[in-house]
Design a protein that fits this description.
Length: 138
């Protein structure tokens, strides 16, 4: 009975010789074909220099008390107080002078988020694009 059990012993080794043979054949194939492959030239796209420098943003400032001010960084760094009704007219007039001028909203950190969203929504309703939020880094 014991002799039967010894004859049916499992083999716990993997024969890796066929894998080594395949790897050597692949190595020989790559060594022969590598010198025959011609490296290709890649044509990279070219860009031209922009004739116009980037336009400075138009800044809408929302103070902590809810008052609005407008600052055109392309012209001056002075704030111009505006009313909610005048805001759209002034922004559209400024953007008519400088096409693609971005608009950024700079709100005091104590301003309610609803007020910022209301101003953004008002700008989007009047088809003013490129609206962003101005943040301060620490």
């Amino acid at each position: 009975m014991n002799q039967r059990r010894n004859k049916r012993r499992f083999m716990n080794e993997i024969n890796v010789v066929p894998y080594i043979d395949v790897m050597l054949v692949l190595l020989i194939i790559f060594m022969i074909t590598a010198p025959l492959i011609q490296p290709s030239q890649i044509e990279l796209p070219e860009i031209g220099q922009s004739s116009a420098p980037p336009v400075e943003p138009l800044e809408i400032i929302i103070a902590a008390n809810g008052k609005l001010a407008l600052r055109d960084r392309a012209e001056t760094s002075e704030e111009q107080p505006v009313e909610h009704e005048q805001l759209i007219e002034l922004v559209q007039a400024k953007q008519a002078q400088r096409i693609n001028q971005p608009v950024v909203i700079a709100a005091d950190k104590n301003v309610r988020y609803e007020e910022v969203i209301r101003i953004m929504d008002l700008l989007q309703q009047h088809r003013i694009h490129k609206i962003g939020l101005l943040t301060q880094s620490k």
